[in-house]
């Protein structure tokens, strides 16, 4: 199958590309970022997904499937530019899919779109509204991109659309929001709170995306691996030290004393859990995770040991 | 192991048929260590401080989904704590009854954490359904916060029942095991509820007792379970149908409360009788001793 991956330059994009290549697929990638050590056999286009040149790739190469990972998920990018990339880019991908005969489009999103709040259900199902727009306004563009992708389910009936809401990634590459939060020696927690964190190993994340492609599943799916564990367990399991801080001190200390920088909306995610029910995805694809939570933490710990 | 954990209770926690992971945490955040500590403390209150009298334990299923539905008795969740304890100590194998806590608890530092580690989750229908799907034992008080707000004179009455539990039971085909709880009103005799103080603390209200705070007195409690009730349907029926079913459960619970009160009266009478007898025996012995002199 000829598969196009917008956002192939990211850690996850590269892993999916390699896996698909191993499986005998023809892989084409689009990214503004270079991929210097890309394996031969992967066709790369160093273009912006929102520009005309990207549409030319669709026109000339006629991919059968598209895995859209060209979203900015790290929160340091200026908001307006992020909005343009995440919303404008997603719109461009689905329009090109419609116009150039793509059969299957996969949008790779995040489980955090459901939002963390004291009155949220513990296990989110796919039908739950993504409430992160109220609890975590900095995620609003990503939530909107996810919902825009969902509209393709009825707007483009000839296109099989899969929207994946994936839990945090944890593994030796140190890629992802949770991995970045855990990078330092000390990890701040809000005193009196210890929410469940849901994560899966990057190999399993790759497997899940490739399975969604192989099984050609249509609809919105939560994707999770092992059961969630409390944040304190993740911190200790990765050989870090938790620092419980009263909420006021927590806000003041972020970005200082070697602690990670976080936007204000992220505080809800340190207090309340966001976990998902992934039964529908498992039933539709037969997905079974291979790496449990203990090994995922071990691999991260070995790849990013605490110094000193 | 912590000094606050009885090894026997820790072994009993190991027998809970719940998928704890290698860190001793279940998929809902309940922790084995925390449960062992909690039940070590609760055993004292259950067996000695309140001397809880339990009847009908055989009606609680040993496995599979079920809803324990009963009345609130007392200004704090004393009833819930003792129901959970009874399922842990009286069932073989032990079971963890999981309550649906008031939403304010999740917002309050430490309190929400304590509840989660004990397997008690925020009262949301989605969470309740997920637990039942996982074949767990759910504990529900359909009176909600209205029930714990009952004052001393209303202690053995029932206030309005919500109907969400009934719709959920019908939708998920879950048997309802009604229970009646008696004595909480005497343990925490609420003379007033301070809504202003509650607002200050982020709670619906704070119960006030003759001794000020809601610390429970050591009184006898009675807990009565009855045989499961099953309701056919999908849970999407009209309100009249659901309300009629709710009324049946309410009536059953009212009967269980009466039964519990009767048991409590007899137990207290027996206890008083035994004391009087002991006193009389003491007097007799004293008289005989005097006669011997």
UniProtKB/TrEMBL annotation, chain A:
Q: Name one Pfam family in it.
A: Epimerase
Family annotation (Gene3D superfamilies) = NAD(P)-binding Rossmann-like Domain (3.40.50.720)
Domain named NAD-dependent epimerase/dehydratase: residues? 3-224
Positions of transmembrane segments: none
InterPro entries (UniProt xref): Epimerase_deHydtase (IPR001509), Lipid_A_modif_metabolic_enz (IPR050177), NAD(P)-bd_dom_sf (IPR036291)
Question: Which protein are we looking at?
Answer: NAD-dependent epimerase/dehydratase family protein
Automatic annotation (TrEMBL), chain B:
Listed InterPro entries: Plipid/glycerol_acylTrfase
Skewed-composition ranges (Basic and acidic residues): 273-293
Can the keyword Acyltransferase be found in this entry's annotation?
A: yes
A GO cellular component annotated for this chain's UniProt record is: membrane
Q: Is RNA-binding one of the keywords UniProt gives this record? A: no
UniProt keywords, alphabetically:
Acyltransferase, Transferase
Recorded GO terms, molecular function? acyltransferase activity
* Region listing for Disordered, in residue ranges: 268-293
- Which residues belong to any copy of the Phospholipid/glycerol acyltransferase domain? 66-184
Protein name in the entry: Acyltransferase
Q: Which organism is it from?
A: Polyangium spumosum
């Amino acid at each position: 199958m000829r598969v196009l991956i917008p956002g192939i330059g990211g850690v996850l994009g590269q892993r999916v590309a390699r896996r698909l290549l191993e499986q005998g697929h023809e892989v084409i990638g689009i990214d503004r970022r270079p991929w210097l050590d890309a394996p031969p056999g992967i066709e790369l286009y160093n273009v912006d997904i929102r520009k005309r040149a990207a549409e030319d790739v669709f026109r000339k190469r006629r991919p059968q499937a598209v895995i859209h990972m060209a979203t900015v998920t790290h929160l340091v990018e200026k908001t307006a530019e992020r909005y343009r990339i995440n919303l404008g880019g997603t719109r461009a991908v689905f329009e090109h899919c419609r116009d150039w005969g793509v059969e299957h489009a996969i949008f790779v999103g995040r489980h955090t779109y459901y939002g963390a709040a004291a009155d949220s259900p513990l296990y989110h199902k796919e039908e739950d509204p993504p409430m992160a727009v109220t609890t975590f306004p900095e995620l609003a563009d990503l939530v909107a991109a996810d919902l825009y992708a969902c509209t393709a389910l009825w707007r483009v009936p000839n296109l099989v659309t899969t929207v994946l809401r994936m839990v945090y990634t944890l593994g030796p590459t140190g890629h992802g929001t949770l991995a970045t939060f855990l990078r330092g020696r000390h990890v701040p927690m809000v005193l009196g709170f210890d929410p469940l964190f849901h994560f899966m190993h990057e190999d399993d994340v790759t497997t899940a995306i490739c399975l969604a492609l192989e099984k050609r599943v249509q609809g919105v799916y939560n994707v999770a691996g092992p059961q969630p564990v409390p944040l304190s367990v993740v911190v200790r399991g990765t050989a870090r030290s938790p620092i419980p801080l009263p909420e006021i001190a927590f806000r003041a200390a972020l970005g200082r004393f070697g602690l990670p920088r976080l936007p204000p909306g992220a505080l809800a995610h340190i207090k309340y859990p966001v976990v998902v029910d992934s039964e529908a995805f498992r039933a539709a694809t037969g997905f079974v995770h291979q790496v449990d939570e203990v090994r995922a933490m071990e691999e991260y710990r070995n790849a990013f040991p605490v110094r000193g | 192991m912590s000094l606050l954990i009885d090894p026997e209770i820790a072994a009993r926690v190991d027998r809970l048929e719940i998928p704890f992971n290698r860190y001793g945490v279940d998929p809902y955040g309940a922790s084995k260590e925390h449960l062992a500590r909690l039940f070590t403390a609760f055993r004292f209150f259950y067996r000695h401080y309140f001397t809880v009298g339990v009847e009908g334990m055989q009606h609680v299923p040993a496995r599979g989904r079920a809803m324990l539905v009963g009345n609130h008795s007392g200004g704090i969740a004393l009833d819930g704590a003792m129901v959970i304890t009874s399922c842990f100590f009286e069932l073989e194998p032990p079971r963890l009854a999981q309550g649906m806590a008031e939403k304010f608890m999740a917002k309050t530092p430490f309190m929400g954490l304590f509840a989660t580690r004990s397997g008690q989750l925020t009262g949301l229908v989605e969470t309740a359904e997920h637990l039942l799907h996982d074949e767990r034992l759910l504990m529900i008080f359909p009176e909600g916060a209205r029930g714990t707000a009952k004052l001393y004179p209303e202690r053995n009455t029932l206030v309005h029942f919500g109907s969400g539990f009934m719709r959920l039971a019908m939708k998920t085909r879950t048997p309802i095991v009604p229970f009646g709880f008696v004595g909480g009103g005497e343990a925490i005799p609420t003379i007033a509820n301070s809504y202003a103080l509650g607002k200050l603390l982020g709670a619906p209200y704070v119960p006030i007792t003759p001794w000020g705070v809601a610390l429970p007195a050591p009184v006898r409690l009675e807990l009565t379970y009855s045989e499961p009730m099953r309701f056919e349907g999908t849970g999407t029926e009209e309100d009249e149908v659901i309300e009629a079913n709710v009324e049946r459960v309410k009536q059953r619970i009212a009967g269980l409360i009466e039964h519990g009160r009767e048991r409590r009266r007899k137990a207290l009478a027996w206890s008083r009788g035994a004391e009087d007898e002991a006193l009389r025996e003491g007097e007799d012995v004293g008289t005989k001793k005097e006669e011997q002199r």
